[in-house]
Design a protein that fits this description.
This protein is an alpha/beta fold and 232 residues long. The relative contact order is 0.10. The protein is 54% helix and 12% strand. Strand 1, helix 2 (32-42) and strand 2 (47-52) form a beta-alpha-beta unit. It has a six-stranded parallel β-sheet with strand order 2-1-3-4-5-6, sandwiched between helices. The protein is globular. The N and C termini lie far apart (37 Å). It has two domains: 7-161, 3-Layer(aba) Sandwich (Rossmann fold), CATH 3.40.50.2300; 165-226, Arc Repressor Mutant, subunit A. Helix 3 runs parallel beside helix 4, helix 5 (106-114) packs across helix 7 and helix 9 (172-182) crosses helix 12 (217-226).
Length: 232
């Protein structure tokens, strides 16, 4: 199915005829047991078009499968959910994104919404919350779990625009290298993932450290954790 055909367009076309069209869902979670459980829940109302286990697979599958909604975890290997959401929003702005995550910290919720997500649900919430978030996302409305304080989230998002200047200076490639290095991968392993040379990886790594005022890989890893590129 062409990715340019949005849920709104397909719904309008269905209303002209008699057919019932289920919204298409792409699921991204690197824990297979969790993903299978979510699949059973979502398939009661939606057409599940695929399950992927990391952010890179998410971007590839979204381009190939043309989902209406992506339900994704934040903490995924190779490319985290927030960075994947940022890229997906740029490439396919009609796709709605809902995060289902263990992160109850308001900072993660703020980053998720700023990356383009319409939904933010905790894995500890009732299953009905996820269904509610997906329904609202399809209508273009935002849903954030009541377990996160709305006023605190609003305040954090306002302050974050001034506080996160360092991250805003990073290029997409630098953010990729940051996560992969923080995951403990060697320069050769990072090079294989990104299809670049180890020398180029080292160049990006040291440019990153210089840009952020960091001196060691350990400090780089701590930065990645604090800013949501990597979870512990």
């Amino acid at each position: 199915m062409p990715s340019g055909s949005s849920w709104d367009e397909r719904r309008r076309n269905a209303l002209k005829g008699t057919s019932f069209v289920k919204p298409r869902i792409l699921l991204a979670d690197d824990h297979e047991i969790v993903a299978q459980g979510l699949a059973r829940l979502l398939e009661t109302e939606y057409e599940l078009v695929g399950i992927v286990g990391d952010g890179r697979q998410l971007l590839e599958a979204a381009e190939d499968l043309g989902p209406d909604v992506v339900v994704a975890d934040i903490s995924m290997p190779q490319l985290n959910g927030i960075e994947a959401a940022r890229r997906l929003t740029e490439a396919q702005p009609k796709v709605r994104i809902v995060f289902l995550t263990q992160h109850s910290d308001v900072a993660y919720a703020a980053r998720a919404l700023d990356a383009g997500a319409l939904g933010y649900v905790l894995k500890s919430a009732a299953p009905t919350e996820l269904l509610t978030a997906v329904r609202k996302a399809l209508l273009g409305r935002t849903y954030v779990t009541p377990l996160i304080d709305e006023e605190a989230l609003r305040t954090h998002r306002e302050h974050a625009r001034h506080r996160e200047e360092a991250e805003a200076r990073l290029t997409p490639r630098q953010r990729e290298v940051l996560q992969l290095v923080a995951e403990g991968r060697s320069a050769r392993e990072v090079a294989e993932v990104l299809n670049i040379s180890p020398r180029t990886v080292e160049f990006h790594k040291y440019r990153l450290m210089d840009e952020l005022g960091l001196k060691t890989t350990a400090e780089l890893t701590q930065f990645a954790i604090r800013h949501g590129f990597l979870s512990i």
